[in-house]
Amino acid sequence: MFWADRIGKEIQDTRKPRDGKVFVIRDEKTLSGRVHIGSMRGVAIHGAIAEVLNEYGIPNKFLFELNDFDPFDTVPGYLDQEKFKEHLGKPLYRVPSPEPGFENYAEYYGAEFAAVHAKGGFFPEYYRTYKDLYAAGKMDALIKTALERAADIRRILKEVSGSHKDESWLPVSVVCEKCEKMMTTRAHDYDGETVGYTCDRSPDDTVPCGNTGRVRPEGAAMKLFWKADWAAKWVAMGVDIEGAGKDHSTKGGSRDVSKHIAKEVFGYEEPFDIPYEFFLVGGKKMSSSKGRGSSAQEMSELFPTDTFRLTLLGKEPMQQIDVDPSGDSVPRVYDWHDEIAEKVREGVADDFTRLHAFCQLPKDRAEGRAPWQLRFGQVAFMVQMPHLSLEDEAASVKGSPLTEEEKAALKERAEYARFWLATYAPEEYKYELQKTMPDIALSDVQKHALSLLKDFLTEHARTGEELHHRLHDLKTEASIAPKELFSAIYGLFLNRTSGPKAGWFLSVLPRDMVLARLEEAVK
Ligand SMILES: [Zn+2]
User: Fold this and answer.
1) pTM of structure
2) Measured in angstroms, how far is the CA atom of residue 222 from the centroid of ligand 1?
3) Can you list the domains of the chain with their CATH numbers?
4) What share of the chain is helix, strand, coil (3-state, %, to 5)?
5) Ligand 1 centroid to residue 84 C-alpha, Å
6) Residues that place a CB less than 5 A from ion ligand 1
């Protein structure tokens, strides 16, 4: 069973919405900079669960929190360090946007991330931590409870995660009234009305101002310590379903601590959990992959919506996803897509064809469309061969003219192939047709094989299939090792030792050119 159905049915069979009416599904992201593709996994998993529940006729809503109330703790490497350094330690909504046109830093990166959700066909209802939760007063009572029960929160932290906090520690970060920073303050006592704080901490070289004061917990004057904050948000938003990444889901990890705080401090059972694995980029985890192509925005540029959804939804939540834009994973994802689409066209109904349906947007799903497509690797090769008509060659590979839908799909795929070639594609996918004979040495055996190939082509034009079989037979006829034969062919036309499928490759080159080049080579 497709994993989203398995989870959807489990929810259907074992859960009731807390409010008796609508299941609340929630996910969130702290907008501390450009968002890594790893954070799209949660969006996709929660989004797919919302979609299956919709299919089953179970009312639900998918909420996404744009977290703008965590502290700005690092200036990302791609920003002007000098310009942003002074804002370190402030809540993200008080840090200026790197580009004009956005209210603040969090809004800028939030808009970029939300655009990636839309590219993936996910449209959650957005709300902001500062404006819609804290400043709206939805957290006030919960903050008071957490302050009153601070001793219990300290005990839970110790028992569940082994983390020790001293007696004066309170589960809040006060926003300093003087310097606006929240990372520099220490809340030390709560008298039932106000919290006393001192702005004297300097984590990661953040500069405190030395201010001291007392503030009431209301009105976004302070934010809950994040594991208590997570639990309190479940209560404030009435969350029924919320999964978490592997990094949070270990025993004694943040999810575990939040679950205990929710239950013991706020009297709230944790939401239905869906733990999920990492989305790696070239084998690297989110924390270590900061390279080109690892942001959600960059990854989304490599695929149209259906294929992007396949990368996000194609694996079980507890399986890792690994995509390396600068390796061969981009063509492999497209091939995977086409293999599943072929099954759909054959009328197969299994987990993979169900997955294919989920690669389409819900509104298009019922049609079950899966147009024939030329493989991405072939498209990527052809867009580099200026003499070729992509549409004609695709029709010849397909064996019949393309439909309008197939033509549109081909045009779109060609754009993605060109983009990939211009950005991340490794050298092995880049070809330049050699206008003149490259300077390569050929052995007598290679010359003999090429001359037999020339004879075969001289008779009349040959299809890729015919050339493929002829090359196969040549190996025995001319007693030549496959590697020697193929490297000679690629050498003559591309000045390299490897290339696309040789029979097909020869068939798409201009016949006159092939004959002339073979003639010259065997002289
Ligand atoms: Zn201060």
Assistant:
1) 0.93
2) 13
3) 3-140+225-276 (3.40.50.620), 172-224 (no CATH), 285-429 (1.10.10.770), 444-522 (1.10.10.350)
4) 50, 10, 40
5) 17
6) 176, 178-179, 199, 209, 211
